[in-house]
Every structure is written in C-alpha cells, then in structure tokens.
UniProtKB/TrEMBL annotation, chain A:
Name used for this protein in its record: diaminopimelate epimerase
Alphabetical list of Pfam families matching this protein: DAP_epimerase (PF01678)
Superkingdom of the organism of origin: Eukaryota
Family: Belongs to the diaminopimelate epimerase family.
Organism name: Glycine soja (Wild soybean)
Automatic annotation (TrEMBL), chain B:
Molecular function terms, GO-annotated: diaminopimelate epimerase activity
Lineage of origin: Eukaryota, Viridiplantae, Streptophyta, Embryophyta, Tracheophyta
Organism from which the protein derives: Glycine soja
Main location: plastid
Catalytic reaction equation(s): (2S,6S)-2,6-diaminopimelate = meso-2,6-diaminopimelate
HAMAP family: DAP_epimerase
GO cellular component: a single term: cytosol
InterPro entries assigned to the protein according to its UniProt record, in alphabetical order: DAP_epimerase_AS, DAP_epimerase_DapF
Listed name of the protein: diaminopimelate epimerase
Chain intervals for the UniProt region annotation (Disordered): 19-38
Length: 359, 359
C-alpha cells in the first residue's frame, strides 16, 4: 500500500526589530562594581546584513525550514555547542513564558533517556527595549544568571532564526543584566563578560591581599605542597595557578585533576568554595588551561575561568592583555581591556543538529 | 524584511514487502549450538496491521513527515532508547552501504560535540530473502554482531517507517544471523536471544564444572571474600552471583560496583574477562540486577546480562523460567523456554526525538 500526501511548510523570516545604536560609553573607574552593572558596548552597534551567495542561501533556507517547523504535539529545538558545552535552544519568541518547565528541561538534558545537554536555553521576547530575553535551565533544573558559552550559542541561534549574516549584534536581557553579543564576520561571537572583581573579600577568599586589595601570586598550601595562586571573581570565584614550589611552569596535562581539584575546591580559605584553573604559559599571548569547576569537576570549557586566567596572567606579569586560551574543549580569545576594565570573550558556537521531540 | 516561501515535503509510505509465514520449527537437542544457528520463531509470523483511530493517524502522519524528510545536505535520523541504551537510527533502505562511515558514527556519538549516543543503527535492505539488514556502529567505531536493546529500537523504528500497527514481526539479517523480532500489541518488542552456553570451557571460564559441564553456584574468591557464581555465555561471557559468604541474599543497591566490578572482570579464572551480574531475588519471578560490563563498567541495561541472570537463577533453583528483571535502566521480561532452550527478551524501546544534522 502506498500513501501519497503533500505537507506544506511555510518559511517566514520575522521582521527584525530595530534598535538605536548604543553609542554612549559610561566612564568606569578601574575595579568599580555596580550591583547590576549595565554592560555597554564600546563600538557602535553595526547591524550589517551582508548578502550571501545563492548556494549558501539555499542551505540557509533548508536550515530555516527546520527552525520554522510548527507541527503541533512536538517541541522543536536546535542543538548547539560552545567548545563542547552543549545546549538545547528553543525558539520562544511568541510568548514570554518558557515553553517547557524546569522539570521537563531536566528530563530533556538526561543523556541516556532524553536529548542530552548541559542546559536548555530559551529565546524569549525582549524586555525594557531589548531585542530578546535569554533564560537558561541547567541540567539540574537550576537557573544561572549568565553563561558565556550559552550566550554565544544563543547569539548564533538568533542569527539563524533571523537569517542574519555578516557582522551584527543585538541586545539581550538576562538575569545578569543587559548583554550585547557581537557576531563577527568569521561567525565567532564576542561577549562582554564584565569587570573582574579582585578585592579579596569580594572574590571571596580568606587569603590576605598582597597587592592593591588583591591576592596575586600568593602562597597556598594544598596537600603539603605550596602553590602560587591569584584570586579573581568574574561573578563566580576563581583560583588561578601557574606554578607550585619546585615547578615554575605547570605541565597541565600531567596533573591528576580528580585528586587535586577537590582539595582546592573545598579549601578552608574559600568560604564559597572555588573554581580552580591550572594554567600553562605557552607564550606571552597563548595560555593552556584546565579547570576544576565547583560542583562539576573537570569540564571542557569554562568561559569565566578563561577570563579569570587572563586577568591573573596580566597581574602576575606572565602574559599580555589579549590571549588565546586553550581549554580542553577548544580555544577562546580573551581580552582584558585597559580602557574600560572589561573582559571580552570571543569564541565559536556551532549548530550540531535540529530536532523535533514528541510531547 | 519579511521573506515568504513554501516548501513542499512529500509524504510517502513505501510498500511493505511480503514474506511467507515462517511456520516450521526445526527440532533441536537441548544445549546444542550451531556455528550460526538460525533462530526460528515458534509462533506463526502474524503480520497484522490494525487500523488506528484518526487522531492517532494524524500523529503518526506528523511523525512520518520527519522520517520522510529528504532535504539534501542533511543527515536525517531518529533517536531511540531501550532502557537508557540510546541509539541514532538511520533509514538506509535506499542503499546497501551505510550512509555514514564508522568514523563519522564515532563523531555522532560524542555526547558533547555530537548528537550523543551509545551507537548508530542502520536500516538497510534485506539480504537472502530477509525484510531488512541491521548494522550497528558502536560509539567507539567497532561493529557488534548483535545488540538486544538495539534490535528493539530497530524494530520500533521500522514499525514507524512502515506505519505498522498492532502485533507484527519482520525478518532481519544481522552479523549474528537471522533475527525475527516481534512487536507486541502493547508496543514492547520480543527478541529471541538464542540458546545459553553453559559448558565451562566455552563460556569461557577456568572454574571447574560442577553440574553437567556447567559452573553452578561455584565458589569464587574475590578480594578475600567467597562469592557464589554461575557462569553463562549468551554469545558473551557472564558471571552471575546471587550471594556471598555471610550474605545469602544480596542487596544490590549497597554494592560498591566501581570497586568490586573490575576485580571480577579481570579475575584470572576468566580468560576473556567477564561481564558480571549482581542479583537480588525479590520473588520466584522477579529479580533485581546491576551489571558491571566488560570494558564499559556499570551500565543501565545489559540484555544478554538479564538473560544470563534468569538462566543462572533457574539453574540455582532460585526462580522460575519466566522473570521480570529490574535493571538500572528499567525492566525486561526474560523467559528461558524449556521446549526450545532459547531465551526470549521482551522490553520497551521508545523514540526520544527526530533530528536533522547538517553534513
């Protein structure tokens, strides 16, 4: 028996909302921190849309056909990853409430019974004049304020939903305030990660400050060994180390993270526990890093960890302000700009596939 | 800017190939093993197709629209799982060569950068008169001859591709020979797992046979503790234990599998290493099992392990020939039939989502 039928799938590209360029830059004093700092973009918001070649357009059209699926009874999504930190992305622009609950998100994130992801990200309508709102449910159901890898995935997803090309940016409302990711010509995404917090009390750490209220290349005894650590918060605490007594340049691949990581994480000098970065200096602009994340163990990519690493490298005089940081999941470009004291993270975010899940 | 276009997706259901009912049953001596035994189905092949309600048809049509998507430049797939053992299923009926290589399958199986799965399964054209051919690439690129959980997923996928309903079956050519899975009314799938191998040297084990060439409730010293073990091969070696000295009924949730599992796996009496099942007897027809799989560690579902467990339980006089076996990933119904000496495994296999991956 043969059944023939035709299903018509309309392809529409929603009109992109315009936004006046953000050209103002509020002066910031070094190391100042506002309760909810509004991160402003230094460069003008350039909403360029470059015309693409026809073959690429054809591919984009095919991609867009998946993004615009609307069959009832199914949840349509895209899977993206930023250096192996993978997310389910959901187009939620038609309502301000996430399409699925945090509990359902936990089920989706299960790697054996569900889709499998580190989190679920929703593209929601903008708030207070922003283009979009971003919300994330972690694989354990918690909701982080921000996630650097997630923002890059969000930005690339929006570019695809809106069929944007070339260099462009948009404003996003998040739990951590306004974020304006910039999609570059090469498809990488730059995100302003804000100002580093260096004051020992605010990181927080009980290690005494030894340089302008900051803990820089300070001695920390772990398991009988003296490590030299610098403490930086990027909204979450990081303990960065480049050396220990007897080994002035770490060979990070030789470290037994599962053994040493927890001892840093739960060390008494870190009242909120800490994320720890073990860093090898390859050159003045190239660092290699491995991370033990608080509550998560060894991970493939920790964006705030990469930022903290460059800040620490500058403070210790080991590297310049613009570095490539190699993480287990891939490289990130990190720049700590002197002019505004902000840390900018640039990296890739790639689509893996498009999916439809029966509800 | 708004773009409007229409894409037409044709929906067709391929004609199902007919096959004469397999009614013959070759007489088989107890415990005999042929090099490649042809597993025959005891009951007649009933290819019933029951008409479904219109609403269900609508849903099926929606499902089928994903299965029949043919956009170029994309690999279309379905994700199924059998008790958490998850697979990417690919409709490959239009070619006898798998659409992707084993190397690509490894990339697909990566849980952070790819789709994430335990393996990739292809539905290929039948060989030697069979309806279909099944091939599997494991997440490490190896190709197993058979996989019970994979067969159930394969069967459910075929049912959906062919829009089959009610009780039905089809013939599949696999690396382990002919398999005829039966999809039951409730959607569960029954698979003939073949005859157990009990002869000690064939399992293989160096433990001495103590019952008709078999090792039944034999003493094995592991880490200074005497365990009572029964050895069964279902094509791969299994060491099943229900008790140890001082504990006549195991409480499997209290075992530290990561510590004890490897010591069984690499024990000198198992020249090919072994899979080990630790079993708690809940009743004469209900067993609870956790498994340490050779080369894989603790897993959610091991179909051959569940089969070996019931065989061992019968040999030790702890349970009857038809049991529910609770595995970490869910329950399986296992029956060791006296009439043909075959072990039949019945369990669920569920679709998680449908996906399309840019190539």
């Amino acid at each position: 028996m043969a059944i023939a039928a035709t299903i018509s799938v309309p392809l529409t590209s929603p009109t992109r909302r315009t936004l006046a360029s953000v050209n103002s830059l509020s002066p910031h004093s070094p190391r100042s921190t506002l309760p909810t700092p509004q991160r402003t973009f230094k460069y003008p918001n350039s909403r360029l849309v470059a015309s693409s070649m026809s073959t690429e357009t054809a591919v984009k059209t095919s991609s867009a056909s998946f993004l615009n699926l609307k069959e009832s009874g199914f949840l349509h999504f895209a899977k993206y990853h930023g250096l192996g930190n993978d997310f389910v992305l959901i187009d939620n622009r038609d309502t301000s409430e996430p399409r699925i609950s945090a509990e359902k998100a936990v089920q989706l994130c299960d790697r054996n019974f569900g889709v499998g992801a580190d989190g679920v990200i929703f593209v929601l309508p903008g708030i207070n004049g922003t283009d979009y709102t971003m919300r994330i449910f972690n694989s354990d159901g918690s909701e982080p304020e921000m996630c650097g890898n997630g923002v890059r995935c969000f930005a690339k997803f929006v570019s695809q939903l809106e069929n944007l090309h070339g260099r462009h940016s948009f404003t996003i409302h998040t739990g951590a305030g306004l974020i304006i990711p910039e999609v570059l010509e090469d498809g990488n995404v730059r995100v302003d990660m804000g100002e580093p917090v260096l004051k020992a009390l605010d990181v927080p750490t009980k290690l005494p400050a030894n340089k302008d209220n900051a803990v820089v290349k300070s001695q920390l005894v772990v398991d009988g060994v003296i490590w030299h650590v610098t403490c930086v918060s990027m909204g979450n605490p990081h303990c960065v180390t480049f050396s220990r007594e007897g080994s002035q340049n770490l060979l990070v691949d030789e470290l037994k993270l599962a053994e040493i990581g927890p001892k840093f994480e739960h060390h008494e000098v870190f009242p909120a526990r800490t994320n720890t970065e073990f860093v090898q200096v390859l050159s003045n602009s190239h660092l290699k890093m491995r991370v033990w994340e608080r509550g998560a163990g060894a991970t493939l990519a920790c964006g705030t960890g990469a930022c903290a690493t460059v800040v620490a490298a500058v403070l210790e005089g080991r590297a310049g302000r613009n570095c490539t940081v190699d993480l287990p999941g891939g490289p990130l470009q990190i720049e700590w700009r002197e002019e505004d004291n902000h840390v900018y993270m640039t990296g890739s975010a790639d689509v893996v596939y498009y999916g439809s899940l029966p509800l």
